[in-house]
Amino acid sequence: MSKLIATNLLLLFVCHLHLIVISHAFSDLEVLMFLKASLIGPGGAGLDDWDDSKTGGDGGGSLHCSFSGVTCDDNSRVTSLNITSVPLFGTIAPEIGLLDKLVNLSLVADNLTGPIPPEMSKLTSLRIVYLSHNDFKGVLNGELVMKMAELEVFDCYDNSLTGLLPTEFVKLPKLRTLNLGGNFFYGSIPEEYAEFQTLEILLLFGNGLSGRIPPGLGRLRNLQNLSLGYYNKYDGGIPPEFGSLSNLRHLDLGGCNLTGEIPATLGKLKQMDTLFLQENNLTGLLPVEFSGCICLMSFDVSLNNLTGEIPMEYSALKNLTLLNLFHNRFHGPVPSYVGDLPNLEVLQIWENEFTFELPENLGSNGRLKQLDISSNHITGMIPRDLCKGGKLEMLILMKNFLLGPIPEKLGECKSLIEFRAMRNFLNGTIPAGMFNLPSLDMIELTDNYLTGDLPQEIGNVKLGSLILSNNRITGNIPPAIGNLKELQTLSLDMNQLVGGMPEEISNLKKLSVLNLEGNGLTGEIPVFLSQCSKLTNLDLSRNNLHGVIPRELTTLQVLNALNLSRNQLTGEIPGELGLMNGLTSLDLSYNDFTGVRPTDGLLKFFPNRSFEGNPNLCPPHARICASASNSGHGSRSGLMTTTSKIVIALVALLTVLLIFACVWMKIRLRNFEKSRAWKLTPFQKLEFNTEDVLECLKEENIIGKGGAGIVYRGSMPAGVEVAIKRLIGHSAGQRDHGFTAEIQTLGKIRHRHIVRLLGYLCNKDTNLLLYEYMSNGSLGEILHGNKGAHLQWESRYRIAVEAAKGLCYLHHDCSPSIIHRDVKSNNILLDSDYEAHVADFGLAKFFHNNGASECMSSIAGSYGYIAPEYAYTLKIDQKSDVYSFGVVLLELITGRKPVGEFGEGVDIVMWVRNTMSELSKPSDAASVLAILDSRLTQYPLASAVNLFKIAMMCVEDESSARPTMRAVVHMLTSSPLQIAGAGAGAAEVQPNLL
Ligand SMILES: *[C@@H]1O[C@H](CO)[C@@H](O)[C@H](O)[C@H]1NC(C)=O
Ligand SMILES: *[C@@H]1O[C@H](CO)[C@@H](O)[C@H](O)[C@H]1NC(C)=O
C-alpha cells in the first residue's frame, strides 16, 4: 500500500518537474504558436500576422508582442490576449497555462469550441476573463478559478457550458462581475452565492436553473445588476429579501416561472432603474410601495396574471420611460398622472380590462414613441397630443370603445409608422395630413364611423396599406391616390364612394389588393387597371358599374380573385378570362351580361353561382341564344317588308322557340336530377365534377377512418389529388344546426398552414368535404410509425412552428375566431415538402349524434389531448386548443403517443411531470434529455429546451396560465440560441456584457 502511494508521489513529482521543464523550455512566442495552431480549427481563418518565421526561433525576442491582440510587459511576457470576432473555429490549447503573466484574456465571438482547458487554473495573475459568444462545451469546473485571487471579471456568456453552478467563485476576494448566462447550467443557484463579498454584477439568465431563488442573495450589498430569468424555471416566487439590495439598479427576473405576489419590499430599492418581471405567473396587485422606487425607468410586468388597478401612488415614478402592463387582468382607469410622466416613451397595456378614458394629455411630454391599448374597454376620445414631440411611431388602438374624431394633429406626425384603430366608434373625417406622412406604412381603420371625403392632396409617401373598410367615407377616389407608389393594399370597401376610378390608380405598380366593394362607384371598368400588374385580388362588386369587361383585364398575370358581381355590366363575358392561370375565384353574378357563357380554359370549372343572376346570359354551348343575336344588331336590316320574308321569319322564330324550349326542358330536367342527387359547393375553381368525386368513394381508396368520418384519396382527371372526407353521423337531411353556414365559413379560410377546404358535396344523406391532398399523411402517423426516425429535430421544430401559425390564424385572425376543438397530431397533415397544415378544424361540434364512446372524442377533442377544464366545465375555448397543441409538442419531443404507453390512466403530460419529478438534478435541460425521443440523432439542446418549455406552458392545468397561440408563435420563432433576444430585459443587459 505505502509502496503504491510512494509510486504515485513520485509520478506526481515527475509530472510537476516535467511542467517546470516545459515552462522553461518554451518562450511565449512558442506558446503563442501552439495556441495559434489549435485556435484555428477546421475552416478557421485569421491570426495571419502571428508568424514566427522572421526570427531564428531563439525565443528571446519581442516579435510576438506585435502580434495582433497581444500585449506584453517590459520583459516581453504576454499580459493580454484580446482576440474579438475572428472566425477561428478551433479550441484553446492546454499550453495557455504557460502564459503565467496573463492579466487579460479576451476571446470573444471567435467561434471557439471544446472545453475551457483546466491548465488555465495556473494563470493566477488573471484579472479579466471574457470568453463570451463562443461554443465552449463541457462542465465548468470551479477548480479552474480557485487560485485566481486577482480575478475581477469572469464572463462566459453564450456558450454551451454545463454542470452545476461552481461555488468556488464565492472565494475570490476581488470578483466584481460574474456572467454565466446563456449556457446549460442546471440545478439550483447555490446558497453559497449569498457569500460573495464584492460582487456587483451577477448574471445567470438563460440557463436551465431550477429550485428556489436563494433568499440569501439579498445580502449582496454591492450588487447593482441581477439577472436570473429566461429559460430558468424556479419554484416559488421573488424573495422579499431582495428588498435589502440597496445598490441594485437592474433587476431582471423575466420569463422564469415565478409565482406568488410581487413583494412590497422591492419598493425599498431606491436606486433601481429597471425592473423586468414579465412572462411569469405572478398574481395579486401591483405593490403600492413601488412608489418608493423613484429612479425606476423601465417597468415591465406584462404577461402575468396580475389584477387590480394601477396605483395612484405611482405618480411619484417621474422617471418612467417604459411601462408594459399588457396581457394581465388589470382594470380601472389609466390614471391621469400617466399623461404627466415627463419621460414616458412606451406604454403598452393591451389585453387587459382597462376602462374609462385615456389621460387627456398623454403624449404631451413630447417623448411618446409607442402606445398600444388594444383589446381593452377604453372609451372617450383619442388624446390630442400623442405626437406632440414628433416621436410617435406606433399607435395601436384596436378593439376599444373610442369615440369622436381622429385628432387633426396626428396628420402632422411625421414619425408615425403604424396607425391601427379598427373596431372602435370613431367618427369625423380622417385628417388629410395623414395621407402625407413620410414614414407611415399602415393605416387601418376598419369598422368605425368615419365620414367625409378622402383628401385631394396625397403625398408621394411610403404607405403600404390603406385599409378603411366599413366606414361612411364619401366623395370620389382622388386622383392623387396614384402618388402612393408603395401601396400594396387599398381597401375602401363598404363606404359611400361615388364617381369613377381615377386613371392614376394605374400608377400603383405594387398594388396587390384593390377592394372597392359596396360603394356607389359608377362608370365603366377602366382598361388601365390592367397596368397594375401585381394585382392578385380585385373586388369591384356591389357598385353601379356599367359597360363591358375590358379584355385588357385578362392580361393580369397573377390575379387570383376577381369579383365584379352586382353591378350593371353588359356585353359578352370575354373567354380570355379562362386563360388566366392564377384565377381561382370569379364572381360575375347579378349583372346584365349577354351572349353564351364561355367555357374557355378554366372558365368551365367555375360553378354556376359565379354567373347567376344574369337573365340574358345563355348557358354554355347554347346553340341558339336570343341575347347573342340581339347583340348583333348592327347588321340587321330594317327593309324586310314582303310577306314571304315575314313568313320565313315567323317559321324561323317558331323553330327557334321550339328548339329553345327543348333545350330549356333538358337543362331543367338535368338540373332537377342533379339537385335530387348531389349538390356541389366549390370554394375555389375545381378542375373536376361531382361524378369524378363519387367515382373515388371505393374501399381501396380509403386512407383513414376516424370518429367523424372516412377519408378517401381521390385522383381527379386533371391529375389533381384530393382528400374526400365522408362525414358520419350528420346529414343534410337532419336538422342543419348551422352546419352549412359553418362549412361556408371554413371554405373561406386561406392560410399557408391550414388545409384548404376545396368544396363541399352533399345529397340527402351524405356529406363529403373535399380537401387538398397531403401526400405525407398526418404527423401522428409519421411520428408514431416506423418512419418517425426520418423526422429529425429540425423538421419537427419547423412543423411545430407551422402548425402554431395555422392555429394562431384560426384563433386570432379569423372573424369570427375559430376554435379547432380537435387539435392532435393526426390532424396536422404534411404535404410533399413536409410542410405542416392544420386540418379538420371547427367541425367537431357538429357531431353530437354519435355513440357515447365517440361523444368525447367528437365534441371536444380526442382522448389524451383534452384540456383538464373540459372535465368540469364542459366548455372549451381557444385555451383548450392551446392545451392540445402542447400535447402535440410533447409528442414531437418524446416521439410518444399521448396515451397508451404509460400505464392505466397516465397520459403523456402526467408522464413527463412524473419523469421530471424523479430527476435528481431537475432542470429543463435534464428533463428534456430524460424524455427526448431516442430516435433523434442530432438536436441543439437549446432548441429542445425551448420547445419543451413552451410545451409545458401550453399544458398548464389552469387555462389562464397557458399562453395564447400568438404568444406561442412568438416564443417558437424568437430563436432559442439568441437568448439575448428572448425579452426586453436581456437586451437591456447587453451593454454590460463586454
Ligand atoms: C479588446 O479589444 C477591443 C478592440 O479590438 C476593445 O474594444 C476591447 O475593449 C478590448 N477588451 C479588453 C478586455 O481589453
Ligand atoms: C460565429 O459566431 C458568431 C457569434 O458567436 C455567429 O454569429 C456566427 O454565425 C458564427 N459563424 C459561423 C460561420 O458559424
TrEMBL record:
Its EC number is 2.7.11.1. It comes from Oldenlandia corymbosa var. corymbosa. Keywords: ATP-binding, Cell membrane, Differentiation, Glycoprotein, Kinase, Leucine-rich repeat, Membrane, Nucleotide-binding, Repeat, Serine/threonine-protein kinase, Signal, Transferase, Transmembrane, Transmembrane helix. Residues 697-973 form the Protein kinase domain. The keyword Membrane applies. InterPro entries: Kinase-like_dom_sf, Leu-rich_rpt, Leu-rich_rpt_typical-subtyp, LRR_dom_sf, LRR_N_plant-typ, Plant_LRR-RLKs, Prot_kinase_dom, Ser-Thr/Tyr_kinase_cat_dom. The chain crosses the membrane at residues 646-667. It is a single-pass type I membrane protein. This is non-specific serine/threonine protein kinase.
